[in-house]
Design a protein that fits this description.
Bound molecules: NADP nicotinamide-adenine-dinucleotide phosphate
Number of helices: 8
Distance between the termini: 49 Å
Number of domains: 1
CATH architecture: 3-Layer(aba) Sandwich
Strand content: 15-25%
Largest sheet: 7 strands, parallel
Structural class: alpha/beta
Amino acid sequence: MNRGTAWVIGASSGLGLATAEALAADGWQVVSGARRFVAPSARDPAEPGIHTLPLDVTDPASRAAFTDAALAISPRVDALVYCAAVLVLGPCEHTTAGEYDRVMQTNFLGLVAMVNAALPRMRAQGHGRIILFSSINGLLGIPFQSAYTASKHAIEGYAECLAMEVKPFGVQVCLVEPGDHRGGSQHTRLHASCAQADNPYATPCQSALGVIHRDESSGLAPERLGQRVARNARRKRMRFRLRVAKVDQHLAVYLHKLLPARLNFHILTDYYHKGGRS
Ligand SMILES: NC(=O)c1ccc[n+]([C@@H]2O[C@H](COP(=O)([O-])OP(=O)(O)OC[C@H]3O[C@@H](n4cnc5c(N)ncnc54)[C@H](OP(=O)(O)O)[C@@H]3O)[C@@H](O)[C@H]2O)c1
């Protein structure tokens, strides 16, 4: 079955790659964008149904070249899936303006630009699906991930506005909110200064980094998330929020809504500062 053409942005690794593969397996013609496609030896570099194109979402010329090349492969854009993201870990006080800028350019402003590249086609077609990767961090903050958390909160607010505006044109929007998954972000992670021993945040920061690393390493399988996204993309009415997480992360979101902020901060700080043993 041919379900149409899906652009998958940030699909060279992790959840984006798993989503591109799941969509291709489900009958979509996938056009993938990322800066570097390196085929791990276990994977077939020429996946059937997946075209790979170079794309740096922070570079307007690269975005334009991607859009032209993708439209030459297929004049349709039935779905846009935006997964591209980078992560900076470190204390707010020591995360530089340049680091905040890089994270916002990749995670949020690149997303806005790619939505704007796809929307005219979708409006002309009278339908389209826009699937934006947020995170549990789009719903609550955890220590030492402020730049990433800010970018994901921005996506959450933006997606709500977008969904209401584009509905009359037959365009649907979905927010994917993954909890911890294996095999992601590690290689794009930039460490701020908390690795230095004389840093006043060094001890809690190192502890939080250890917990974050451990939770991701024991996280859910990316393939399962890819299949959940593909299943949602084929629904007549997509679910607006697709949260794919372990029970404890669902619970954290629930408690975040329910409990006073001070109590939430205590629980989360305790968890990350004590190495996740609370
Ligand atoms: N893994 C998790 O536990 C988890 C949890 C919650 C949310 N998420 C979200 O899921 C999505 C995928 O994350 P992941 O963990 O799978 O990370 P990942 O493996 O590091 O994938 C990030 C992707 O973004 C691309 N990218 C980064 N900068 C780019 C740029 N300037 N232009 C184009 N592409 C760029 C990377 O490709 P290149 O480097 O080749 O450009 C890569 O394909 C992200 O939105 C992330 O926030 C992940």
